[in-house]
Automatic annotation (TrEMBL):
Name of the featured protein: Iron ABC transporter permease
Native source species: Brevibacterium aurantiacum
Source lineage: Bacteria, Bacillati, Actinomycetota, Actinomycetes, Micrococcales
Similarity field: Belongs to the binding-protein-dependent transport system permease family. FecCD subfamily.
Any one GO molecular function term: transmembrane transporter activity
An example Gene Ontology CC term for this record: plasma membrane
Amino acid sequence: MNTTEEQRSHGAYFSRVDFGYSLKRTRTRWFSLLLPVRIAVVSVLLLVLAVIAVGVAITFGDYPLNLLQVWQAITGAGEEFHQTIVREWRLPVALAAVVFGLLLGVGGAIFQSLTRNPLGSPDIIGFDAGSYTAVVITMLVVGTSNYWTIASASIIGGLVTAFLVYVLAYRRGMHGFRLIIVGIGVSAMLGSINAYLITRADIDDAMSVGFWGAGSLNRVSWSSMTPSLIIAAVILLAAAILAPALRRLELGDDAAVTLGTRVGRARLGLMVIGVATGALVTAAAGPIGFIALAAPQLARRITSSPGVNLLAAGAMGAALLSLAHLLSLVIAQFYRAIPVGLITVCIGGLYLIFLLIRETRAHYGTPR
């Protein structure tokens, strides 16, 4: 059997693998696509919810607007002052809530799938902490707040931390639970480094970094959002290309190799993509925790799928961050402005406690 026949055989076998959800085949002259029906429907509904949430969020602010005025401003039919408020000030923030939530959901799904553990998200493993530390060093030690410098430092910091955690956790193979435990320890060490740098910095710089570290979308503008959109498009495209390999890896390395997947390259590429999702968000808006942790598992339960799915997890992440952004604006109307990162941490912390209790019982065989 030649190489082409082997690839066709692997493709035919892969198309018959039951992943636990119904698939609809879409075939054209140029490509063939297997579309999970329930996952696609749920994802569309979640994205619609995210759009509605950010649409309502645009109406809030020091100069309140109604939904009709927002729509007229977006379409260019409203007053010039309203167009300036919506298009220049509030629209990039609303867009950031959807796109960054999408990125965080995809990144969380990748690592939870690779580690086969619901605790395996970049913010828990410590990769986001590495990005944050690199940005803190760039801002306080190097003394620059240039977007491209911060974005580069954030991605490099996340990748270096990922490599360090991987090396420390590797013992005759990689076990997901060990990777998470080592990641939590590395994250704690990086947190102490951040605290030391902030306490030794000038008071104005320390306050600036501290506010940035809370994770806020309000600082996002078109100058930072435009390059973020370009990079996000590249990251999501790469994730879509490697999504079939990720599903094969869920079957085990032996099965993935049998289906024609180069396990080492696929896992490395997925790890880079997963780190890049959180690093990009950290560079533009600061660390926003627990979206990557909660989105894949919530999406899995809603779609009733046996494993995490990148599309559903991304849509759930967009919905969660958009709703958290809306909640922060509602709270600001009655109390004071609260960064969206603090809201996600408060709500996500409760979810983390639930996961820790459940995973501890499952790990030690305690009845639930």
